[in-house]
């Protein structure tokens, strides 16, 4: 089956490609400098990401999914899909938790004052936001979180520990879930807060992942005072607000568009260096399998987007897309290692390195854990999609 978009959408796609050519450093330079996590300092990373996102904001694209009344672009689902597809294909730094769920949550539950103060800043990429949900004893079972928030006059006082906080070391603001009623059933005593990450009592400690990259952190709260005006939504109803915010997270095209580019790079390498294929002839089939998977996954993501465009709420479909996309990205990374053989293990500027496949391979491990593990996605598909009984 051949999919074709309206000419207007195709013209927009060309506009996005042109923007990327003008504003992102060439791909070769980005790969050489290890832009997918190999910055010389956190400041350099923040300046690169925020600089690009501010250019997107000037163009009215950063918040293109938001309604116009909040400074967004009010773009159709198809336009967003094409935008996301092109940005992910170019592996552009567009990830922004403020845009993805803080802003949309404020639109639903925020006070007028919160909307006026925070939404324009988010839409203009003025602040870097991190998400403070997971704890050492609360990941998949997020409602088990123990970080406490106790009312004291006009403030809440926060104590506890968060973990795996992506970009916590770069963040200006944190989107925090904390327990406000320890006696209520676990889903009913949680409240959402916006926390200034420079507040006294917050300690951010780096966690270096197995690829030797600093992406996530541990965040400790010791008597951190947060004004009660920074509670979002109703006190003790945070779980329900969070569940809506998590739904903003799962769309899916990014894994497939980024995966398509990775497969193309591997195919180009196989053509450039036929000795790699002679050494392992089965690599042809492997590369073909990956190319087919990228297409299958793209259709899964189109399905999610077209459901949204028709006003439906994809649930098991979004889980299937997340599951397939994250496992596929690991298979692509493994195929790259098979193609390169022993040389695939060389990284971080080794003079004999062909491409830095090892970093991509190690980074891919977390794909099936972040944003809900594969087991959790399979559970959703089994119970909500297939109607199987809960175990
Ligand atoms: C790269 C990355 C970035 C992240 N960024 C953030 C962030 O910015 N902010 C944040 O708050 N968190 C973040 N996380 C944390 C992430 O949300 C959790 O790691 C994830 O939800 C899993 O929780 P856990 O690590 O506690 O594992 P657990 O929940 O302890 O799971 C351990 C194992 O048990 C399995 N398991 C658990 N429950 C079930 C079940 N009901 N049925 C079947 N199997 C089950 C899991 O699938 C897994 O294999 C990030 C994680 C990664 C890897």
From TrEMBL:
Keyword Lipid metabolism (UniProt): no
InterPro entries (UniProt xref): Acyl-CoA_Oxase/DH_mid-dom (IPR006091), Acyl-CoA_Oxase/DH_mid-dom_sf (IPR046373), AcylCo_DH-like_C (IPR036250), AcylCo_DH/oxidase_C (IPR009075), AcylCoA_DH/ox_N (IPR013786), AcylCoA_DH/ox_N_sf (IPR037069), AcylCoA_DH/oxidase_NM_dom_sf (IPR009100), Mycobact_Acyl-CoA_DH (IPR052161)
Co-factor requirement: FAD
Key word Transport present: no
Domain annotation Acyl-CoA dehydrogenase/oxidase C-terminal: ranges: 236-384
GO molecular function, one term: flavin adenine dinucleotide binding
Gene3D superfamilies, A to Z: Acyl-CoA dehydrogenase/oxidase, N-terminal domain (1.10.540.10), Butyryl-CoA Dehydrogenase, subunit A, domain 2 (2.40.110.10), Butyryl-CoA Dehydrogenase, subunit A, domain 3 (1.20.140.10)
Name of the protein this chain belongs to: Acyl-CoA dehydrogenase
Keyword vocabulary terms for this entry: FAD, Flavoprotein, Oxidoreductase
Record's GO cellular component terms: plasma membrane
Family: Belongs to the acyl-CoA dehydrogenase family.
Domain Acyl-CoA dehydrogenase/oxidase N-terminal stretches: 7-124
Domain Acyl-CoA oxidase/dehydrogenase middle stretches: 130-224
């Amino acid at each position: 089956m051949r999919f074709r978009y309206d000419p207007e959408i195709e013209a927009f796609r060309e506009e996005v490609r042109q923007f990327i050519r003008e504003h992102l450093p060439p791909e070769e330079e980005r790969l050489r400098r290890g832009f997918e996590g190999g910055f010389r300092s956190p400041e350099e990373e923040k300046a690169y990401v925020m600089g690009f996102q501010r250019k997107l904001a000037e163009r009215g694209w950063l918040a293109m999914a938001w309604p116009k009344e909040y400074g967004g672009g009010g773009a159709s689902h198809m336009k967003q899909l094409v935008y996301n597809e092109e940005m992910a294909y170019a592996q552009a730094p567009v990830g922004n938790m403020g845009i993805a769920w803080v802003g949309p949550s404020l639109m639903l539950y925020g006070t007028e004052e919160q909307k006026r103060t925070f939404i324009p800043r988010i839409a203009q990429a003025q602040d870097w936001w991190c998400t403070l949900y997971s704890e050492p004893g609360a990941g998949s079972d997020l409602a088990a979180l123990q970080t406490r928030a106790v009312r004291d006059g006009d403030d809440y006082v926060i104590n506890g520990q968060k973990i795996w906080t992506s970009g916590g070391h770069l963040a200006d603001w944190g989107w925090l879930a904390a327990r406000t009623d320890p006696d209520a059933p676990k889903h009913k005593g949680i409240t959402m807060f916006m926390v200034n990450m420079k507040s006294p009592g917050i300690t951010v400690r780096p966690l270096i992942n197995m690829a030797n990259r600093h992406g996530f952190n541990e965040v400790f709260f010791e008597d951190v005072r947060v004004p009660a005006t920074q509670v979002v939504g109703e006190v003790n109803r945070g779980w329900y607000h969070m569940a809506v915010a998590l739904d903003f997270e799962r769309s899916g095209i990014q894994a497939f568009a980024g995966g398509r580019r990775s497969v193309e790079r591997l195919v180009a390498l196989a053509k450039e260096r036929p000795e790699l294929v002679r050494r392992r002839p089965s690599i042809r089939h492997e590369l073909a399998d990956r190319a087919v998977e990228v297409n299958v996954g793209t259709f899964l993501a189109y399905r999610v987007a077209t459901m949204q465009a028709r006003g439906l709420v994809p649930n098991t479909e979004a889980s299937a897309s997340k599951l397939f996309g994250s496992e596929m990205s690991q298979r692509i990374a493994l195929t790259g290692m098979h193609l390169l053989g022993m040389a695939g293990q060389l990284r971080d500027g080794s003079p004999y390195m062909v491409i830095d496949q090892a970093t991509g391979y190690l980074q891919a491990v977390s794909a099936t854990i972040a944003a809900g593990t594969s087991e959790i996605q399979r559970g959703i598909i089994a119970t909500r999609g297939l109607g199987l009984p809960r175990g």
